[in-house]
Structures are given as C-alpha cells and as structure tokens.
Amino acid sequence: MRILHVNKFLYRRGGAETYMLDLADLQEARGDQVAFFSMRHPDNVETRFAEHFPRYVEMNPLPRGPIGKLRGAGRMLWSRSARRGIAQVIEEFRPDLAHLHNIYHQLSPSVLAALKAAGVPIVMTLHDYKLACPSYSFLDKGKPCTACVGGSLREPVRRRCKGGSLSASMAVAVETWIHRRFDAYGPVHRFICPSKFMAGQLTEARIFPDRLRVLDHFADSLGMEPKSEPGGPLVCVGRLSPEKGIDVAIRAVGMLRGKAQLVIAGDGPEWVALERLADEVAPGRVHFTGKLDRVRVLELIRSATALVVPSRWYENQPMTILEAFACGVPVIGTAMGGIPELVVDGATGRLVPPDDPLMLSSAALALLRNPDASLAMGKAGREVAVRRFSPEGHLNGLREIYGEAIKAAHPT
After folding, report:
1. In terms of residue numbers, what domain contains 121?
2. Is residue 166 part of a domain?
3. CB 404 within 8 A of CB 411
4. From start to end of 26-135, where are the E strands?
5. Model confidence at 157, in pLDDT bands (50, 70, 90)?
C-alpha cells in the first residue's frame, strides 16, 4: 500500500510527530511505501517531495503586525500553497490512502480538498481536541473546560481562553465556525481516537460520531530493555508548560523531604519559573535535563522508581505512559482524560487527583519506600504493554480502519 502521511511538522517535535514517524517506520518494514507532506522547516527529516511543501510559518503566537496577523489568519482558514503542494505530491506519489495527523493552522483543511478531488481515501488520527475545542486543549485559564462541547462557539471569545487574548480567541473561534459551516473536515472517512475519553467528548459534540474509531497507540516493548533493579528517582518527561502540572510534582517532592529526587526532562515556557519553584521548595533535589533524544529519555525512564504524569488537563493517550510500561516502570498519573484508561490504580501505578501535591507525594512515598512493590507494578505494566500496545496489534487495527476508509471512499 502507498501511504501518504500528512502533518504540519516533520521532525520529533511532540507526541504526534513521534507517533507518525515511528508508525511510518513500521509500515515500511512491513512492505508499504510511505511518503510525507508537511511544511518546510530546518529540522525536518530528509524526505521526497520537500520542494512541494509550503513555507514555514509560526502560529503560536500569530505573526506580528496587522499584515502578519491577517496572513496568519488567512492561512489558518485555507492555505492555497498547501493545497497546491499536496496536489503535486498526490500526482507524483499516487497514494492509495492519506493518513493525516495535525494539519490545523499551518496546513489547514485545504489539503483535504485536494485529497478529495483526487479521490484519495482519508484517515485522520486526532492527537488533541481541536475539532471540539477551538483552542485545542479543553482549558480555560489553566482550568479544565468543556464549554464548547455542549455550548456555542461564543464561549472561547467570552472566556478569552486562547492565552487570555481576545483577538486570538476570536480567531480560533471564527476558524472553527467557518470550517464547520463549510464542512471542511467532511472529506475524512475515518477519525482515529487514541482514547475512549476523546471519542466520548467528540460524540457529545456531534463531531462525525459515526466515523470515530478508538485505537490505542503502540510501544515496542520487545525492543526495550525492561527495568530490572528496584529504586531510582521520580521522573517527569514532557513540555514544561502549565497544563502539564510539573509544578505539582515539584511541590510533592518538596513535601517528601529526605532524599527523594525528581528528574525533569523537557523544555518549554515554564522552565525558569519551575527552576525557581524547585530552589524554593526542594533545593538540590530537582534536576532539569532539558530536551533529550528518545534513547536518553528511555534510559531515564528505565532508571526511575516511577514516571510521574501530573497533568491538570485532559490528556489523550500520553506516549510517555506507554513507554514507561514498555520499560517496566509504573506510572503515577492524574485521574483525568485518558490516563485512567491506561493506569490501573494499585496494579500498574497510582491515580491521584489533579493539582493535589499532597496526594501525589503520598503515592510517590509509598513506591519510594517499597521499591520491590514499585518494580512489581512495573512488571505488570510491561505485561499490559506487550499485550495491549504491541506494534503488530496496532498495525492490524489500523489496517481494518484503512479498509473501512477505502470502502467509504470507493463504495461498490
């Protein structure tokens, strides 16, 4: 099968890009032919058809100045350069199916129009809540919010939930309204939700409920050496931004006192503030590594007593949890979004309330004091990873969804 993967970034920027690139490797190993369409970026992996990619533009925040903002808003709604570029790739690669990931803003649904015109079946993995929440994250000023699920698109403007900015909130609300009004995502034949929570929210929001399919991501457990010795620090991996709740983990470690250590891998806008907080509440016991490559991230996770996922937003299906299980490491996570679908409290880790450093510290202390119990939980998590999150199982499930999309695109 000839598969065209479409995503606005083509380097390991986050979970969506990591999933797409790892999936493409699996598909090529199975014998599929894979190509990519993205926008230009100096960090992109080398690939065919890069000359057809639209130019790079930053959308968070929007370009400066009235003209820049106008151009940025126009590209959010409809990118003529993206449509021209993908049409050229379709002509040269002739895909049997297109698998889309994050196309919002920089590529826009214009790529869907080109795929539809060429009769290409389309599958889209939803890595965030953009189709139901104009600001992606179900957050309003740092607090969980699903007002747009059952309400109107006036809510983002009224609440200024896009960074507290009226203009930015209005821009994403108008973008969503126009795309819904003109059925911009109508050409997608199947939408993949990595969590039941996401599928439930989209169903409630009446976002193509008959086309939603739930399919777990994957982790290559057999390709990862499991943890064999008990003990180690607590570890957080991810973007250092408010919704990730890293501050809660730092405060929890501060409450533990003693020799408890927290290692934080990643970077982001909260780094300086988090360092100040660590110096204040847990001096000398919180260590920031910055962004690490995947090999070093897995080594860090494998060294841990537990991976800590203290998010205060509705996580979908964090790849770090799957990787922790594959490494034989338990997870302490907040009972929000898709996390409870992964972590079984008391069996493969612990579930705690969001924004509650006391409960997080209590859960961490229990594992730190009993490293053998932590190691046993990690082994249970690895068994789950081998059984539920295998690459082969994911590819088989994906093939079924691809088949549905092809039948929907070309009914006999």
Report:
1. 2-131+185-218+391-409
2. no
3. no
4. 33-37, 97-100, 122-125
5. confident
